[in-house]
Write a structure and sequence with these properties.
By secondary structure, the chain is of the alpha/beta class. It has helices at residues 34-46, 61-71, 93-107, 132-149, 162-166, 187-196, 211-214, 217-226, 230-240, 252-258, 268-275; strands at residues 13-15, 21-23, 27-28, 51-53, 79-84, 121-126, 152-158, 175-179, 199-203, 244-245. α4 links the parallel β6 and β7 (152-158). Residues 33-278 form the NADP-dependent oxidoreductase domain.
Length: 293
């Protein structure tokens, strides 16, 4: 890898195909609800996170938007991702477009009229590859329309495999968000994305603190070597792989410690040891439809 991963900081970004940039490190808010979600986002921004990943399906877009306002961090400094919740049925492009619109005032409730600015979403993803080629095509056309209008800056996908990516109409997605950690490395999908210049984003990078995985001897040995905990080593692995990574937590101390991954480097021996843990789809701990149509 030509990039020097030893120079990464919490401010490091990845340049997308569009020319825009995305912070390499962010906060996931899957299953975060109510006050705990609101406070987690504020705590993360206080700890210098500048990227929050939400979704229509999570039902917390409004909490994320309000937390950003309350944090005092300018909206322009916070990268917010959300995801369109697709349907197994084929929907028209216009119907999808209207659903996308519903996210805008939740994600960015304060920008209208402020210094002439307009509300916007930094990144909108299709959450899953449902609907077959026709449904995916209609979903993608709606996202592309919103991007052309400017209120969505970038568009991408989540849980898409190489075949599904290949069959999408233009433009090429800027990012594919998939389950990624040493036990589920999704190598064919990652290779395809990297070949096409599509950024790879790792969700569930902490393997949901799976008891057995967190006691893996190779992982514990690396933790001891660097004086770091399992979460920190796993986040660092994702970063050194070149992925955008979005660990989830609602615990203030954990939110802070998850960001303390820039004062050590995993060497080749460490990376090889973690790479050797791959179990393919069998290593997944979430719904993992990448290899399914």
């Amino acid at each position: 890898m030509s990039e020097d991963m030893s120079q990464l900081t919490i401010k490091s970004t990845f340049k997308l195909l569009s020319g825009n940039t995305i912070p390499r490190f962010g906060l996931g808010v899957y299953q975060s609800r109510g006050e705990e979600c609101f406070e987690a986002v504020k705590e993360a921004l206080k700890a210098d996170y500048r990227h929050v990943d939400s979704a229509q399906m999570y039902r917390n877009e409004e909490l994320v938007g309000k937390a950003v306002i309350e944090s005092g961090v300018p909206r322009s400094e916070v990268f917010i991702t959300t995801k369109y919740n697709p349907n197994h049925k084929i929907r028209t492009t216009e119907d999808v477009y209207q659903d996308l619109k519903s996210s805008l005032p939740k994600i960015d409730p304060s920008s209208e009229g402020a210094n002439g600015s307009k509300p916007y979403i930094d990144l909108m993803l299709i959450h899953a590859p449902w609907g077959g080629d026709e449904g995916r095509g209609n979903n993608w056309a709606a996202l592309a329309k919103a991007q052309k209008e400017g209120w969505i800056k970038d568009i991408g996908v989540s849980n898409f495999g190489a075949k599904q990516l290949e069959n999408l109409p233009e433009p090429v997605p800027v990012i594919n968000q998939i389950e990624l950690h040493p036990w589920c490395q999704q190598r064919p999908t990652v290779a395809y994305c990297q070949k096409k210049g599509i950024a790879v984003e790792a969700y569930t990078p902490l393997v949901q603190a799976h008891k057995e995985r967190f006691q893996e001897p190779k992982l514990l040995s690396i933790c001891k070597k660097h004086g770091k905990d399992q979460a920190q080593v796993l986040i660092r692995w994702s970063l050194q792989k070149g992925y955008v990574v979005i660990p989830k937590s609602v615990t203030p101390s954990r939110i802070r410690s998850n960001a303390q991954v820039y004062d050590f480097n995993l060497d080749k021996e460490d990376m090889d040891a973690l790479d050797s843990l791959d179990m393919g789809a069998d290593g997944a701990v979430t719904w993992n439809p990448v290899d399914k149509d």
